[in-house]
Amino acid sequence: MREFLKVASLEHALACCERFSVVGTETVSLDHAPGRILARDVACPADLPGFRRSTVDGFAVCAVSTFGASEAAPALLDIVGSVRMGEAAAACVGRGQAIRILTGGMVPEGADAIVMVEHTEALDGTSIEVSRAVAPGENVIAADEDAAAGQILLTVGRRIRPQEAGLLAAIGLVDVLVFRRPVVAILSTGDEIVPPGSPIGPGQVRDVNSTTLAALVEDAGGIAVRVGIVHDVLETLSSACTDALAQADTLLISGGSSVGTRDLTLDVIEALPDAELHFHGVAISPGKPTILARSGRQAVWGLPGHVASAMVVFRVLVRPFLERLAGLAPGEGAAWRNVPARLSRSVASAHGRTDFVRVRLEDHPDGVLAVPVLGRSGLLNTMVGAHGLVRIDREAEGLLAGATVSVLLF
Amino acid sequence: MREFLKVASLEHALACCERFSVVGTETVSLDHAPGRILARDVACPADLPGFRRSTVDGFAVCAVSTFGASEAAPALLDIVGSVRMGEAAAACVGRGQAIRILTGGMVPEGADAIVMVEHTEALDGTSIEVSRAVAPGENVIAADEDAAAGQILLTVGRRIRPQEAGLLAAIGLVDVLVFRRPVVAILSTGDEIVPPGSPIGPGQVRDVNSTTLAALVEDAGGIAVRVGIVHDVLETLSSACTDALAQADTLLISGGSSVGTRDLTLDVIEALPDAELHFHGVAISPGKPTILARSGRQAVWGLPGHVASAMVVFRVLVRPFLERLAGLAPGEGAAWRNVPARLSRSVASAHGRTDFVRVRLEDHPDGVLAVPVLGRSGLLNTMVGAHGLVRIDREAEGLLAGATVSVLLF
Fold first, then answer.
1. Which of B206, B227, B338, B342 to mutate against chain A (most A CBs within 10 Å)?
2. Rounded-to-integer distance, Cα B74 and Cα B119, Å
């Protein structure tokens, strides 16, 4: 059996991911921007909303015209016009005057406050009584209240959520420069593997990893390209890898779990053009036999053949790697994907490696409970029953029941 | 000013959402199943993995042949063949015999355990010494260990994550019956509103709500159809609503915030064919002027014109409604979208309504902190700066600094 050449700590493995550069950029229309990652800072081209707006239905006035007004001694104002929505007022407001305005309307020149319609009484078509004084600025949004011209609204590396998309709409940015979605080729190896849609013979199993990894890649913001199943023959696997790398930023090979297959994958990876092995073996469980190498500027991952292990490696290593490749700013959103919870029972762990325990989350009146999902090596049942992973650090020998843990959601 | 006809509690408003039925079903290929919602229970068609598999590289044996074996007194076994990956073994294993096998290989007839290669020594090509005894079943996965034929693996209403997709691949289910994605028409009203790509005149603002709501709908698993901007004229709005409902399961109208515009929206909704008003006004802040009505079997929502209010209403009312429409099973995933956190400062609230406070999450060594995002009525800056909402119940008059809160993520 060939030894692991460089068993890396999880921290070292994550540091190796930093050696790959961010993918290029492209311009997408605003409709397609949500979910994408901004490739440059966005500055506000002009004041927002751009004019003084009323926040109520009422009358635009000079605040001073209302000073001292009360129910007992209302102020009498002349109506000199009305503001139409989406237009500037034709008239200007002076002392003792008022102009009708609706919520969102443009405050006319001369006015510095809006009296709510509830605090007025119409005398006839031409004048009103105001029963409550307004202060200057009351019920008025300033022209630059949402944002001032030149202000940086969003910075590079920000993921565009619905509200960021809304902000881009507000400033009229309809062509948005974003990072490309990283293209990830997915290749399954193993002579016993058949496609999910094929009839199955004795000793054969269906390809689960391609489907699972493709879904994980798409969830992480990448574009999955399925290369399919490649047999455990050096030349075949080698040329399949070369073809895959020609059309992708990154290649994920998930291999059979036998030592022979793993060695074959390593041989193939090391023989790729301009290849450099970053690590072979990571001190995590599950997921020890993970490989990361570079071929040219592209990354090649060798993932465990066991799908549950491959999923864990994806969650703790490949996803952070892809997010970096995709241009996501460090710390952007990641921290609160972790849900704090209490561990329902004690879990043992081996010293010297970082363990990841699958847990199911249960909502309890006194907080969220993380219940370890037990079960032997079952392919998928432990993952289907789990919501996330609890990490047990290298130095720890386990976690006690009741411990506060941070659950890394899938 | 027209009064709110039926100001509903949040609980009543949520109960009204239950009156609408789930959309129909469709069949999608496995590649397109991730993210969709299962429309029927999935039973296991045959045992999984379907044959006894080895979990190690080594030799298939009768366990009894190794009983008492040790380094000092190894058991001597004859090699009678080897298992090829993806094939049944030609030979059968008897007492005193061994067959070479790799991880994932099909355990041959007669064998009931696998000796790891590390615990064997090859004498010549035809026999091995075994230095450690194995128990029956050791290093063997049972034919039905992942799942037994007939077992219900996944139930209707389950969201298909990468691992559920993997499980479908494992059983060869390549055509998956899922619920249709609900089609949601989005319509903005307001004479002052122009499309994001158009030049803007005095008193005009760009349509922010269509972009924001469309992104929210897609995030919630729906298909957004943008109807565009409709002017505040009864006949125009009326016929736009009728056209929109002809192509959608649900219509979201987000209107100008003036009382006149709100009244117009209500008039239009009430005049739709077979219309029934469920509520007009909800005791929440922000979001009070929300409308829900039925026209035929379809739902029509009137949302606040202010985009931050519309987003809150979407998060607490429309999204649960859409998830129900989309067939998502109750409780499926929702609870742990909430992140427990400590409130950084006290927040006051009015008695008699449910308040939603925007918060930013900050990771601190002693846990996650929820920091209320302050700011006046700014269109979007408070939403862009926030990660989620903290709910303050109707009976509470606020929350104290340090209180444990559950943050509803956007």
1. B206
2. 10
